[in-house]
């Protein structure tokens, strides 16, 4: 797993994009404190998923409001899935596996 | 013993007929045979699957569980090869024999491939790069192959060929359409319409079109290398799709001794000629000399057939023993005639068909004749080739007998209706082709007859939708699933929605979820507001925790807006509850950049401000500077991380072009300059914008003030529009719209001073903010609540809440802060950090 920054880089309930080994990864900090990581580019028309709104289950892309499951990357609205990446917090540090 | 019903063909007509039989309570042991390895799917949508607009999964109409649930034995991948009419048996390609009491033949059609040299490889079927377009397997194979190749030729310029050509463009670079006749869609269109369509197809879609092109040979031995036309022309290609027509599948009927001409001949009861127990439906049927190639007639046939086959089975609701003698008493009489008080079975009289082309951006609709046939046929014709528009109507004895629309389908619905029903036509015939002003053409749902067809793909009427709602289905999507309305080409979806809403009308019948203010908290707005007040919930997360259970992303924005309205300065702002636009105070665009629109009150600016905007645009290399429809200037294409700097350099207030909020007040020059002006519209507009800037609400609020009834600022069609009239008075119109909906506002009040306008505007907006549903614009809210009620509350204070409304609005105005001031320090970590380069740009090498 690679360290990518502090969990405090991400406001509670929002997402931020990180470049990891040439990949763009959107990391979300859920309101229950857990974190999730998905590929940052919306498979629909390339929307920035990190700019989407989230809850404990899904992220809603800001461009056309399709939704993806934060844990699995599966689409909840019949689109292609996005890659989901293992991510964890250790001592306030974010680690992601690509 | 139950009667055995066997159906040959598990396509659109066969499966629909079985559904109609089940709906009539038909009590049969049903066995279906389908040549294809699937349940029944929507063949029409193969065009969309090819074009990448629709997923395969989305086109299934009856999946395998449907057959199981209804106790239907389905044999997929089995072809029926012969019927023994005397022994009442069918023989399958798998060696099976199955007995029947009633038989339905619904074998559809197959693609017709003209004799072209090289199309077939002896012993192997089609040449490997040659495809037809009829089944899901055809479509899959075509997509797979096309993706790996570059140039396609489509043979056939009818509906199917055009849709195939368009769809193929989704998978490979170059498509040529070769059509044997002199113009495209020659069965539906006249020469001029076909030529107009051709120009559009070539210019707009970039498909090469060859007419008068008779394909004689497909070239290439192992792989396709091109096609050769009769005149010797060779067109290079590596994929060929043949869409040159269809032929009814009649072999099984013919070898079994049924009467077959072009199709299997049926009588008006949809029974095979001279057969008591064999019925035929769909494209394989020939009725009164007609064979159809579209779905609408199949639905009508299916109903008639189902009624008749059930009538021979069940004579009365409570009779246990099946009535095998064949008395003609039908349970539900669809299209039946009523003779001497006895219901006799239903009859089919043929269908009037209309067609639409399903190619995005290319509108074609046609029905009936394409040109006059008799000397006294009336012809109205309009052509504007430059815009790709051709329209005509043909009238005989006062009835519409044909119409063509190319490039402009706005009149299609009305024409199809007039054509199918033989409705009386307007005296001013031009109204058939154009909207000539006057009241909006959109028909009210209330006035539509129950039997009017809403979904022309799946044959669903207004009555059927209403019945579905009455049967307990309260959501639009639920009704669409249950009736299939809107699940064909999709053009009727808005109408379906209106009808379901209408049928749901009145609070009693409404589905509770539809009345929730947001989906994630099960309460309508008034109840929700009361609960929020009772528990003093000032943040979105506290609302979920106290009232809603789980947090719901799709509800956050609506709740944030509501809480801000209710608590003004006391609202606890959680940034994750905001939509991205409201997090960064700009409107997100298709490439993830943002647009910046500075405030320009009333559309009035100064040379100094213009200079500043120009300098900023230049300094930051703004990709586009544009005047908006809201009378201000838009800087488009600004990356997120640059927003704070752009605002700092502009040093102007935000114009709020991104929120569900008060947007603009458009004005005209008014009495200060205009020779007709009777009121200072500019000053009043500026004052209104100054006061109500940025106030959030359930939807956007767009205003205008205009200096006289000439209405240059379009005040009649605004959420709130003010019109100066002679005598120093001002009219206030509310609930107007000229966006996706067009509606003239209702007159709320006529007042004598700008001050009164400002007060009533605030009160009206506050009343809307408190009672409008999330995302419900005033053009929907005003008619829902009713202008009389609104006037009573806002103008006459009939409910005694005017002072409270005014006070709440005052608080909101007082709590307003210009969001663009929030720029020196980000409100959250990484507030303006880029979320991604959407189109990944080539990286400039960085030197160490
Ligand atoms: C910039 C502008 C077009 C222009 O170049 O002129 C514009 C741009 C957008 N409009 Fe508009 N509208 C603009 C004037 C209008 C007008 C005319 C007006 O305001 O006088 C209308 C008709 C009046 C009305 O609001 O109904 C208008 C009716 C719409 C609608 C339809 C609303 C409806 O319910 O009928 C939408 C869609 C929506 O709100 O869901 C929309 C949505 C949009 C969005 C925000 C689409 C979106 O959700 O991203 C566009 C943002 C484009 C971008 O990339 O920034 N825009 N839009 C105009 C900005 C005006 C301004 O200065 O604020
Ligand atoms: C790409 C495409 C787009 C279209 N677009 C439109 C449109 O926009 N609007 C419109 O109105 N129409 C459209 N159509 C036409 C529409 O799909 C047909 O009118 C409709 O499917 C006909 O239904 P059917 O049941 O008669 O035939 P089918 O749907 O073809 O069903 C017949 C079924 O019977 C099976 N079968 C045949 N013989 C046997 C046998 N001996 N034993 C067992 N099974 C057998 C076949 O395999 C097939 O599955 C389109 C067609 C295509 C191919
Ligand atoms: S009309 Fe409005 S919403 Fe549509 S493309 Fe133009 S700006 Fe965008
Ligand atoms: S780009 Fe994400 S939903 Fe369209």
How is this structure best described in words?
The complex is a heterodimer of chains A (98) and B (848). Chain A has 98 residues and is an all-beta fold. Chain A is built from no helices and ten strands. Chain A has strands at residues 2-6, 15-20, 23-29, 35-39, 53-54, 58-60, 67-69, 84-85, 87-90, 93-96. In chain A, the strands form three sheets. Chain A has a four-stranded antiparallel sheet, with no helix packed on it. In chain A, a hairpin with a 5-residue loop joins strand 3 (23-29) and strand 4. Chain A is globular, with a radius of gyration of 12 Å. The termini of chain A are close together. The model of chain A has no long low-confidence stretch (mean pLDDT 92). Chain B is α/β, with parallel strands linked by helices and 848 residues long. In chain B, 29% of the residues lie in helices and 22% in strands. The A-B interface holds A 8-17, 24, 26, 31, 40-41, 45-60, 62-63, 65, 67, 78 and B 55, 57-58, 541, 550-554, 556-557, 574-577, 579-580, 583, 588, 590-592, 828-830, 833-836, 838-839. The structure holds siroheme, flavin-adenine dinucleotide, iron/sulfur cluster and FE2/S2 (inorganic) cluster. FE2/S2 (inorganic) cluster is lined by residues 42, 44-47, 61, 63-64, 66 of chain A.
Compile the SSE list and pairings.
The complex is a heterodimer of chains A (98) and B (848).
Chain A: E1 2-6, E2 15-20, E3 23-29, E4 35-39, E5 53-54, E6 58-60, E7 67-69, E8 84-85, E9 87-90, E10 93-96
Antiparallel strand pairs in A: 1-10, 2-3, 3-4, 4-8, 5-6, 6-7, 9-10
Chain B: E1 3-8, H1 12-23, E2 28-34, E3 40-41, H2 46-50, E4 60-62, H3 64-69, E5 73-76, E6 80-84, E7 89-92, E8 97-99, E9 102-105, E10 109-111, E11 120-121, E12 125-126, E13 130-132, H4 136-147, E14 151-155, H5 159-168, E15 174-178, H6 191-205, E16 208-210, E17 215-219, E18 226-229, E19 234-236, E20 239-242, E21 246-248, H7 251-255, E22 264-266, E23 278-280, E24 285-287, H8 295-311, E25 336-339, E26 342-346, E27 354-356, E28 364-368, E29 378-384, E30 389-396, E31 399-406, H9 412-421, E32 453-455, E33 460-461, H10 462-470, H11 476-483, H12 493-504, H13 512-515, H14 525-535, H15 540-548, H16 553-567, H17 580-584, E34 587-588, E35 594-596, H18 607-619, E36 624-627, E37 633-638, H19 643-650, E38 662-667, H20 670-673, H21 681-692, E39 701-706, E40 720-725, E41 729-734, E42 737-738, E43 742-743, E44 746-751, H22 754-771, H23 778-785, H24 787-794, H25 802-815
Parallel strand pairs in B: 1-2, 1-9, 2-5, 9-23, 13-20, 14-15, 14-20, 15-16, 22-24, 38-39, 39-40
Antiparallel strand pairs in B: 3-4, 6-7, 7-8, 10-21, 11-12, 17-18, 18-19, 25-26, 27-28, 28-31, 29-30, 30-31, 32-33, 34-35, 35-37, 36-37, 40-41, 41-44, 42-43
Helix pairs in contact in B: 1-8, 10-12, 21-22, 22-25
């Amino acid at each position: 797993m690679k360290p990518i920054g502090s969990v405090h880089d991400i406001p509670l309930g929002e997402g931020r994009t990180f470049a990891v080994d040439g990949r763009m990864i959107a990391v979300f900090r859920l309101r229950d404190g857990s974190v999730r990581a998905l590929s940052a580019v919306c498979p629909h028309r390339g929307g920035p998923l990190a700019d989407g709104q989230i809850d404990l289950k899904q992220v809603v892309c800001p461009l056309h409001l399709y939704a993806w499951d934060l844990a699995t990357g599966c689409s909840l609205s019949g689109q292609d899935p996005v890659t989901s990446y293992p991510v964890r917090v250790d001592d306030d540090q974010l680690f992601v596996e690509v | 013993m139950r009667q055995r019903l066997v159906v040959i063909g598990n396509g659109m007509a066969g499966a629909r007929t079985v559904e109609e039989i089940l709906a009539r309570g038909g009590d049969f042991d049903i066995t279906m045979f389908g040549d294809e390895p699937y349940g029944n799917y929507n063949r029409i949508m193969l065009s969309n699957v090819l074009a990448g607009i629709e997923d395969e999964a989305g086109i299934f109409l009856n999946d395998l569980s449907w057959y199981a649930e209804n106790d239907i034995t389905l044999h997929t991948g089995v072809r029926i090869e012969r019927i023994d009419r005397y022994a009442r048996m069918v023989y399958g390609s798998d060696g099976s024999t199955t007995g029947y009491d009633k038989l339905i033949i619904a074998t559809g059609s197959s693609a017709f491939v003209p004799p072209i040299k090289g199309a077939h490889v002896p012993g192997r079927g089609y040449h490997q790069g040659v495809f037809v377009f009829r089944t899901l397997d055809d479509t899959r194979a075509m997509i797979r192959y096309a993706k790996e190749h570059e140039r396609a030729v489509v043979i056939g310029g009818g509906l199917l060929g055009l849709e195939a050509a368009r769809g193929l463009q989704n998978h490979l670079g170059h498509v040529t359409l070769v059509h044997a006749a002199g113009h495209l869609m020659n069965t539906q269109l006249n020469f001029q319409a076909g030529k107009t369509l051709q120009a559009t197809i070539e210019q707009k879609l970039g498909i090469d079109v060859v007419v008068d092109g008779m394909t004689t040979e497909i070239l290439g031995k192992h792989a396709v290398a091109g096609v050769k036309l009769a005149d010797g022309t060779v067109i290079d290609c590596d994929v060929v799709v043949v869409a040159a027509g269809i032929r009814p599948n009649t072999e099984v009927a013919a070898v079994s001794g049924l009467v077959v001409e072009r199709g299997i001949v049926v009588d008006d009861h949809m029974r095979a000629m001279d057969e008591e127990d064999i019925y035929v439906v769909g494209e394989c049927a020939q009725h009164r000399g007609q064979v159809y190639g579209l779905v609408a007639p199949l639905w009508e046939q299916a109903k008639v057939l189902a009624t008749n086959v059930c009538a021979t089975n069940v004579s009365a609701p409570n009779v246990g023993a099946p009535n095998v003698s064949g008395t003609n008493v039908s349970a539900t009489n669809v299209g039946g005639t009523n003779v001497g008080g006895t219901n006799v079975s239903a009859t089919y009289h043929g269908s009037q068909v209309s067609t639409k082309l399903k190619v995005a951006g290319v509108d074609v609709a046609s029905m009936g004749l394409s040109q006059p046939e008799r000397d006294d046929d009336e012809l109205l014709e309009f052509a504007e080739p430059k815009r790709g528009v051709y329209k005509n109507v043909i009238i005989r004895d006062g009835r519409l007998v044909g119409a063509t629309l190319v490039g402009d389908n706005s009149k299609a619905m009305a024409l199809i209706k007039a054509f199918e029903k033989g409705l009386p036509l307007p005296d001013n015939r031009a109204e058939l082709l154009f909207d000539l002003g006057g009241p909006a053409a959109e028909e009210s749902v209330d006035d539509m007859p129950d039997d009017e067809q809403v979904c022309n793909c799946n044959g669903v009427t207004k009555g059927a939708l209403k019945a579905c709602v009455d049967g307990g289905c309260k959501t639009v999507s639920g009704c669409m699933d249950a009736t299939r309305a809107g699940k064909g080409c999709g053009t009727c979806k808005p109408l379906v929605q209106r009808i379901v809403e209408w049928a749901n009308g009145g609070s009693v019948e409404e589905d509770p979820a539809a009345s929730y203010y947001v989906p994630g908290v099960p309460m309508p707005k008034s109840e929700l507001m009361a609960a929020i007040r009772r528990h003093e919930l000032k943040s979105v997360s506290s609302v979920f925790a106290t009232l809603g259970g789980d947090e719901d992303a799709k509800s956050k924005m609506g709740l944030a807006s509501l809480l801000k309205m209710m608590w003004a300065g006391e609202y606890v702002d959680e940034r994750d509850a905001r939509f991205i636009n409201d997090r960064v105070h700009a409107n997100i665009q298709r490439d993830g950049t943002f647009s910046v629109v500075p405030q320009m009150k009333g559309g009035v600016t100064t040379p100094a401000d213009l200079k500043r905007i120009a300098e900023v645009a230049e300094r930051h290399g703004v990709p586009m500077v544009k005047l908006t429809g809201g009378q201000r200037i838009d800087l488009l294409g600004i990356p997120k991380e640059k927003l704070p700097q752009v605002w700092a350099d502009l040093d102007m207030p935000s114009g709020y072009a991104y929120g569900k909020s008060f947007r603009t007040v458009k004005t005209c020059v008014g009495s200060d300059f205009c020779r007709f002006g009777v009121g200072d519209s500019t000053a009043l507009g500026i004052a209104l914008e100054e006061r109500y800037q940025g106030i959030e609400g359930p939807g956007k609020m767009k205003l205008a003030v205009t200096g006289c009834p000439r209405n240059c600022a379009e005040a009649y069609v605004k959420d709130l529009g003010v019109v100066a009239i002679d005598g120093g008075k001002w009219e206030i119109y509310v609930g107007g719209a000229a966006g996706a909906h067009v509606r003239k506002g209702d007159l709320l009040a006529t007042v004598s001073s700008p001050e009164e306008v400002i007060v009533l505007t605030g009160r009206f907006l506050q009343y809307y903010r408190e009672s409008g549903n999330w995302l419900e614009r005033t053009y929907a809210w005003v008619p829902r609540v009713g202008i009389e009620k609104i006037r009573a509350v806002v103008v006459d204070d009939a409910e005694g809440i005017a002072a409270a409304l005014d006070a709440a609005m005052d608080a909101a105005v007082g709590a307003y802060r210009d969001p663009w001031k929030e720029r020196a320090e980000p409100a959250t970590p990484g507030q303006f950090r880029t979320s991604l380069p959407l189109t990944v740009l080539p990286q400039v090498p960085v030197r160490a």
